[in-house]
Amino acid sequence: MTLPGKACNPGTNGHPTGQGRKRTELMRLIETSPLKHFGLVLTTCLALVAAPSTPVQAQNMFAPARTVNDRVISNYDVDQRIMFLEVLNSGGADPRREALERLTEEAVQRDYARRLGIRVNRDEINEGMSEFAARADLSTEEFVAALAENGVDAQTFEAFVEAGLLWRKVVGQRFPALVAVSDSDVRRARDVVAILGRQRVLISEIFLPTDPEFADAVAQIMELIEAANSVEEFSNLAREFSLAGSRDEGGRIPDWVPVENLPGQISGPISQARPGQIIGPISLSGAIAYFQLRASESTRDIPADQVALRYKRLLLPGGRSEENLARVAQMRSEVRNCAGLGPFARGLPEDALVEREGLVNNLPQSDAIELARLDRNEISANTTDGTNLVVLMLCTRELQFEDAPSDDRVRDVLFDRRIGEMANVKLQELIADADVRDF
Which PANTHER family does the annotation name (predicted)? Predict the structure, then answer.
């Protein structure tokens, strides 16, 4: 079998040679590999295929895997963190990479805390370990024993907690004074628009091996994948080359997949992709992966009988006159919120400007349809009421439900979210400025 558009050079015995032979071997691997039946489980299976330890490996256990400034992250540290993340069920698709990233973050967090003179004492660490263990309804001793059964040392747990406590103190001391949450911020947070929707996708996948002996053939296949211009082309390549269990279906994963269920290195690019776009190559444990977005949809599942609107309604006599249309244009350029609509009602009857509120289903249909097009503080002037031009301005659109949080609670959530965002930006800056070296 040859690559489409590329012929194998026949040898003297009539068999393919060089890259053609490697490609034949690759196809034999694909045909015989049990991994083709397991789809995304491929990465897990390959991660489990490990060679037995040797004396040389034991000697290298404490050799540096990475240095971050003057801090050493050993191979032992990495192995311990991998097992710790597995116990917590929070590892990524590439466990070693995930472990190194976490340990690097903690190294720069420790350095920054040291520069600021921030420390944690033994009692704080013990309390932090107890607090963390309590999340699993265990005492510290029980949690440490459970970790030990999975090969994780107590010191690994302690170091993890200590780094978290140091960063919590850093964040608490450095950022609160820089954050303010206004009443307007609270109102915006209550707006239905602020309720995050749920995105789900239909995707196809191709998994290729990373074995060195197939490198040349895989490189050619990668070129074909990256040049694919349609879902059908990608599907055909998946049928011919993919190791994934979805190969026989052309790489298609048949069910909708919530984006939040995908690993971070996949979910980010997929959520921003357009249908037909190919994402990759992405290095997973023992595999090279490509994904193609076939379809995407977002839903917020908000029933209309729970959405409450508050809006201003202004009647301008004269209908769609040039004068009124000019006034509407002026409103759009000058009015920033519902309170600013008042001056445009001067000289009009008292009931020309009214404020209304209610559930969407209970509003006049003509108003509800127009308001559905508006975001908060936007203006519509598309309908008339008798000889009057109807100007609508949406003030708020909120979800009504039992036990709605108070304004103070919303303010606290916004405050914590902004603190977290600032802390994450600072963390990325620290990593970027650090002297990171791999061994």
Answer: CHAPERONE SURA (PTHR47637:SF1)
Q: What is the pLDDT of residue 406?
A: 77
Task: Report the C-alpha gap between 355 and 345 in whole angstroms.
Answer: 13
pLDDT, position 366: 81
The residue whose two tokens read 């039946």 is 37
Q: Which of 328, 430, 339, 438 is CA-nearest to residue 106?
A: 430
Element containing residue 152 per DSSP (H, E): none
DSSP string, 82-125: HHHHHHHT---SSHHHHHHHHHHHHHHHHHHHHHTT----HHHH
Contact 430, 108 (CB under 8 A): yes
Kindly give the pairing relationship between strand 353-359 and strand 379-385: unpaired
- pLDDT-flagged residues of the chain (< 70): 1-59, 91-93, 191-198, 260-261, 263-265, 284-286, 299-304, 401-404
**Per-residue pLDDT, 356:** 95
Q: Please report, for residues 70, 182, 420, 436, the alpha-carbon distance to residue 114 in angstroms, rounded to integers and kept in the order given.
A: 13, 34, 20, 18
Report CA torsion sign: 60, 66, 68, 74.
negative
Token readout for 23 is 């490609």
Ranges of beta strands (E only) in 127-231 are: 198-209
Let me know if the fold of 59-174 is the same as that of 304-399.
Answer: no
CA neighbours closer than 13 Å in the CB half-sphere of residue 105: 18
Residues in the chain, overall count? 439
Give the domain ranges of the chain.
59-174, 196-299, 304-399
CATH code of 304-399, in short, is: 3.10.50.40
Instruction: Judge: domain 196-299, CATH 3.10.300.10.
Output: no
- Residues 58 and 61: their CA atoms lie apart, in Å, by 5
Question: Do you find a cis peptide bond into 281, omega within 30 degrees of 0?
Answer: yes
Return the closest-CA partner of residue 344 out of 316, 367, 322, 385. Answer: 316
- Whether domain 59-174 has CATH 3.30.1130.10: no
Write phi, then psi, for 373 (nearest 5 degrees). -85, -10
> Residue 216 and residue 222: Cα distance in Å, rounded?
10
pTM comes to 0.50
Max CA distance (Å), the chain = 100
- Token pair recorded at residue 271: 């959520």
DSSP-derived 3-state class of residue 378: coil
Contact 430, 186 (CB under 8 A): no
Type of residue at 228: A
pLDDT in tens, 265-283: 677 788 889 999 999 898 7
